[in-house]
């Protein structure tokens, strides 16, 4: 069975066929009498309440929900499907992996691969961000675990962030700790969220904020007890969905267009920058040392 996205084909556990954003094949979808639907792909779980017009995407890429190319491909397909289905006005992003929202970019995609792979990977990262950041739906991140780097970017690209109150659930753009640099569009999103000075400080030091600090700096909008993250996200969503879609969507676009355009107008150059940066020997070495440290942490 295969998951087909554009020219890319991956083995997948379910039959999901996508062409031009339309699901053609059978998928594990069930519709309950109460308007609840559930779509299952291997790494992304989509639950939806048709009556309320709200879908929930749960990241399901254990152990740490790293943003592998396969995960991103499935995620983009699910997102497109929801975006194109006018039933859905709101989307909650959360994790199915206990204690981890997302560990960010998959370091194995950036290590020991060829240049074409790095380019393909970075294009998928760009695509994911543009789709999230410019979504017409209301996006609420229900952050139920650690959220470094790319995981933080996904949360920051939502319209509202609810973080579980657990000191282990740190969030931030920690790229410099890995010896790498957050791209300009990660930086732009952070600046838009917490302001220039706080972003400069956080980015240079690679700060990962505990929940109370994240709330204080404005990186998240609410910190709530862990067992209330989903219910809080849902009540925030209800509040946001009370606003007429056309007015809210135009306003969102007005606020975000310049930031997104900044990348759109130089996507190819951004890919080339990433490829030449990440393929440097010194960067490969830093990433390998970091991965090794993560592995040895357990022993
Ligand atoms: C001239 C200038 C030009 C500039 C040009 C700029 C170009 C752009 C440059 C590049 C930009 C890249 C941007 C990068 C963004 C990123 O997202 S990088 C990834 C950052 N992520 C992290 O630092 C998180 C690392 N992980 C952790 O801190 C922890 O794993 C955790 C998430 C807090 C979970 O902890 P715990 O539950 O204790 O699990 P672990 O035991 O640590 O991990 C379990 C296994 O998972 C592996 N793993 C963890 N994270 C990743 C990952 N991100 N990718 C791949 N694999 C990961 C970990 O190694 C363990 O593996 P095993 O030992 O094999 O089980």
TrEMBL record:
State any GO CC term.
mitochondrial matrix
> Known EC number(s)?
5.3.3.8
Q: Which Pfam families match?
A: ECH_1
Location of this chain's protein in the cell: Mitochondrion matrix
Q: In which pathway does it act?
A: Lipid metabolism; fatty acid beta-oxidation
Cite a single GO MF annotation: delta(3)-delta(2)-enoyl-CoA isomerase activity
Predominant location category: mitochondrion
InterPro entries, alphabetically?
Answer: ClpP/crotonase-like_dom_sf, Enoyl-CoA_hyd/isom_CS, Enoyl-CoA_hydra/iso
Q: Name one GO biological process term.
A: fatty acid beta-oxidation
Annotated catalysed reactions: (2E)-tetradecenoyl-CoA = (3Z)-tetradecenoyl-CoA; a (3E)-enoyl-CoA = a 4-saturated (2E)-enoyl-CoA; (3Z)-hexenoyl-CoA = (2E)-hexenoyl-CoA; (3Z)-dodecenoyl-CoA = (2E)-dodecenoyl-CoA
Keywords attached to this Swiss-Prot or TrEMBL record, sorted alphabetically, are: Acetylation, Fatty acid metabolism, Isomerase, Lipid metabolism, Mitochondrion, Transit peptide
Superkingdom of source: Eukaryota
The record's similarity note reads: Belongs to the enoyl-CoA hydratase/isomerase family.
The entry's function note states: Key enzyme of fatty acid beta-oxidation. Able to isomerize both 3-cis (3Z) and 3-trans (3E) double bonds into the 2-trans (2E) form in a range of enoyl-CoA species, with a preference for (3Z)-enoyl-CoAs over (3E)-enoyl-CoAs. The catalytic efficiency of this enzyme is not affected by the fatty acyl chain length.
Subunit and interaction comment: Homotrimer.
Query: What's the name of the protein?
Result: Enoyl-CoA delta isomerase 1, mitochondrial
Q: Which gene encodes it?
A: ECI1
